[in-house]
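Possible regression after last week's pipeline update?

I re-ran a chain I had predicted before the update to compare outputs. Posting the input and the new output here so someone can diff against the archived version. Not blocking, just want to make sure nothing changed silently.
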Amino acid sequence: MRNVLLGIMCALTLGLAQPVLAQSAEFQQLKAEAMKGDSDSQLELGVMYYEGDGVEQSYEKAKEWYEKSAAQRLDRRLF
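New output (post-update):
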C-alpha cells in the first residue's frame, strides 16, 4: 500500500496524473467561444494556460489569450 501511495505521489509530482482537459468537450467549447471573440472565455483560457490547469502550462499561450481578452474589453469601452 505504501508503494502505491508513493507511486501516485510521484505521478502527481511529475504531472502524469493531470487530467487531460484539453481533449474534453468542455475545453473544446470554451476554446470555440474564445476563438469567436468572447473575452470571458479568452480570459479563462489564459488563466488555464498560465496555471497549467488541465492543459500543459504555457506562459506564451497564456499571454496570447490575455491579450485577446484585453483587446476585446478595450474595444467595448471605447465604443
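Follow-up from reviewer: compared with the archived run. The helical segments are 2-14, 25-35, 39-51, 59-78. Marking as no regression found.
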